[in-house]
Known about the structure:
The chain is mainly alpha-helical. The protein contains nine helices and five strands, in the order βααββαβαβααααα.
Amino acid sequence: MIDTWNVLHQTGILPPESAGIGIQGLVSLINSSRWAGENTTFVCDGTPAENSANGPNYQTVFTGAVRTADDEIMDRVAASSSSRSILVVTSDREIIRSIKAGGAQHIGSAAFLQALVDDNQAPKKKHVRRPSGLSAELAQKWKREFGIDAEALEELQKTPLPRINAPKPKAKPKPLATPAEKMQRPVTPPEPILPAELLAEARRLLGE
């Protein structure tokens, strides 16, 4: 439920190209916002105007010369059996106090208008068309063409897939030594037949 003139009299929010919009302009902004498709009632002071909005999701209520839009909004919330589902757009303090006491939700006119602007300026998501599956007619044609029946498909679904064991890598053979490498192998000298002490003693005696 929108306190219409209260919203439209907000300044410094709408971009220059949208300045001075009426009810129809407000409807256009709502249709491209997060509130698109919601049932919306525009409550206005005075008598019906040419730019009022009425349709499947919109209703414009003019209160006439005697009654005010403020009273109309407060009375509608108070009389509603589902006031908690009503969102009232206004910056009028008296209305805010009354509708909150009645259990309705509230958003300020400036905040509501800014949200409309933000939603309309946000980049639109591109719709990516995804390929659809085979039609039933084409699927039947393929079944006939390739000789596939329902029993074969059911049996195929029940058949477990074979396990594939990856072969183990073979051990690499050790490279053979080249003739040159064989020649370079160290040769262990033969061990002496007699202990070193005896040989030393023999050399000493021979020297004498």
